[in-house]
Design goal:
Elements: E1 29-35, E2 40-47, E3 60-65, H1 74-86, E4 94-98, H2 103-106, H3 126-144, E5 147-156, H4 158-169, E6 176-180, H5 186-200, E7 208-213, H6 217-233, E8 238-243, H7 253-264
Parallel strand pairs: 3-4, 3-5, 5-6, 6-7, 7-8
Antiparallel strand pairs: 1-2, 2-4
């Protein structure tokens, strides 16, 4: 995830004859939601693709994304959704981005490793963030927009850890889970050790999982281990894994999301 860029001051200039004054460029909508689960107000960004033949009132499945601020990953993922829907290689999805306040708190589960606790003043907030999604944000999105019952989530790095942690702890929350370079080292790799046993106790038939990794050896090995273990032990779940060694941790998100979106959400062929 890229850090938010600082706003640059602008100076109004007089318009020349025949030139209109600049107006804001809107690609979607933004709203705020006061969260009891998190004890704070969160900003939410929403993008609906504008394909040529997409009726304005057509219900859409929803793709949720942490790191979803305008200065984070929302714009480039919205661009992927737009171009893939427009060129017919992805089904239309409503994109819902959640802007960060304390990213390392929200994306991490509890940990017993003292080294993990040095990354931020507060960690271990993933259960509360899931409660926010389940009880507050998802009902609000359904109230505001025409949606189907299908949901998905995409995240990278610590947000990728959150995606897979949610799959293991609360698999019914989403239908599709996309994790890019997930930080599976968290809490000495506990999620890797527990995933298969936890998922065997749940009904995960029909779930889709896509995991991609870049050139970091530890992240790539952990991603492959998770995908292979879960895919082999749970035949009812569809696990896809892709190594992209030409990408670094900083460059992986966009090409990996491109692969995942058009692999998992191919348009249904006409009868």
């Amino acid at each position: 995830m890229w850090p938010a860029a600082a706003a640059q001051p602008t100076q109004a200039e007089p318009t020349a004859p025949g030139v209109t004054a600049a107006t804001p460029l809107a690609i979607g909508e933004t709203f705020t939601l006061a969260s009891r689960a998190l004890g704070e107000t969160r900003r939410i960004n929403v993008y609906r693709p504008t394909a040529w033949n997409l009726p304005a009132d057509q219900p859409l499945p929803v793709l949720y994304m942490p790191d979803g601020g305008i200065g984070e990953d929302f714009l480039h993922v919205a661009g992927l959704v737009q171009v893939l829907v427009a060129n017919g290689s992805m089904r239309p999805f409503l994109l819902v981005g959640i802007e960060n306040t304390e990213r390392r708190r929200d994306m991490t589960g509890p940990t017993q490793d003292p080294k993990d606790r040095t990354i931020a003043p507060r960690v271990g907030g993933a259960p509360a963030f899931r409660a926010f999604l389940r009880t507050e944000l998802m009902p609000q999105v359904r109230q505001r927009h025409a949606t189907t019952g299908e949901t998905a989530i995409v995240g990278e790095s610590l947000a990728g850890l959150f995606v897979l942690d949610t799959l293991v702890r609360e698999p019914d929350l989403f239908d599709t889970y996309i994790a890019l370079d997930p930080s599976l080292w968290w809490n000495r790799g506990q999620l890797l050790d527990e995933a298969v046993a936890q998922l065997k106790a749940a009904d995960v038939r029909g779930k889709q999982v896509a995991i991609a990794s870049g050139n970091d050896p530890k992240l790539a090995a952990d991603a492959a281990r998770f995908a292979q273990a879960v895919g082999a032990a749970l035949p009812g779940i569809d696990v896809k894994q892709r190594a992209m060694p030409e990408e670094t941790h900083l460059t992986l998100y966009h090409p990996a999301a491109l692969w995942a979106l058009r692999t998992l959400f191919k348009p249904v062929a006409a009868p």
